[in-house]
Batch of 2 targets.
Target 1
Amino acid sequence: MMSKLPRWVEYGAFLLTALAGSVNVIGLLSFQHQAISHVSGTMTLLGSELLSPSVSTFHLLLIVLSFLLGAAFSGFFIESQALKLGRRYGIALCIEGSLLLFALYALTSGHTWGQYLASAACGLQNAMITTFSGAVIRTTHMTGIITDLGIMLGARLKGAPFDKRKAKLFIFILLGFIFGGILGSFAFQRFDIASLVFPAGFAFFIAFVYWLYLLSNKSQLEQKG
């Protein structure tokens, strides 16, 4: 049960998924209509491309590897993927924002490797937080979240207890991703690929809010530490 779930977890999850949702919709609208916040579709395309390898096959492989490298960096830098205040999420978010800005520079200069930087940024974010109080949390794709929510609803129909706080967290995650998609689509319609500036800036903003929260709760964290 997650009855003692602090409010900042839900709000933080909403902000992170909004960030991922905005990046993903910009990718779908610009990068050859290809999602970049997750690699399920990319892996499917890669599998089909392997029947008759071409330059695009290598490109898809690099997209997947970039996501993997971003996640690997997160695992090295943050050390543990269980959510806990005090870890270096702020710096990781600043690195993510920087990757998105470099991706924008590359793409506006006509270099496809900008897509790899954007994919690495999403891999980094997705690996930042993977569990909280036993719940599996993903902030860059929604398949697992919807699956877990469906399992909870099915179990409730059989009489099992329903964890309302856990369901609330999942709903915040889903709404955040949709909200990010709306914002990203709105920005892309007006600024095209330059709209990547918005999720990049949003990453820096979330990092700033996180650091402010840490400072305001410094004494409490020291007591726990």
Target 2
Amino acid sequence: MKKIEGIRGLLLDLDGVLYVGDTVIEGAHNAISAIRQHGYKLRFITNTSTRSLASLQKKLAGLGFDIPKSEIISAPQAALLYLKSKGRPVCHLLLAEDVKQDFTRFQQSDEKADAVVIGDIGEAWNYAILNRAFRLLFSGAELIAMHKNRFWQTESGLQMDIGGFVVALEYASGKQAKIMGKPSIDFFQMALQDMGLPASQVAIVGDDIESDIGGGQQAGLMGILVKTGKYRESFVKASKIQPDLVIDSIADLPKVLGLSE
């Protein structure tokens, strides 16, 4: 198996790389432990927009991962930083109730807003919700999306993600969404800054050829694609993006880093 050199830090996607739903990917615990023991800097990144930072850490702990909040970088956290940079914008939040807990510092309104913030609200999507957001955007609000993923992997199969709703609002309002999570270069640069490492010394490990690998490579990172989660060979063949390395799962990561034979 090909080994890689010069890497000192890793950005590890969560859902699809460490686990799918509530099922841990085989070998994930041992892989993370081995990598930590060799001094690599780790950040765990996710576009997941249904959980607050506290809930995300709790889920990880429940799956047996000892990961501090300081190592978790989520799309909602990136959105919080962006909104704070804008001062005190009035927000219309299309977010799961748990995630809204992280946004309580901002005034919220359904009538007049500076920003429409979109995350995953599951089966709550309907025409009335979309039309309310459209009217706010048409009246001047900025469109902020946690991500623009097309689909994601669940324990019961692939499921449509929020990207379709974001595109619909872009088309109707004539506005381009500000994307907070992967594949936004800003998201990856924020992670690099937090790690204190240059892009040339960091690899992204993910199951999404576009958001993970494509986004990471655009930011100058090495892209390592795993064949778990939403990975489908047909998607990879149809994509113009070429991973730097493809491995069966995160269990193979220590080996390609030269940590085990």
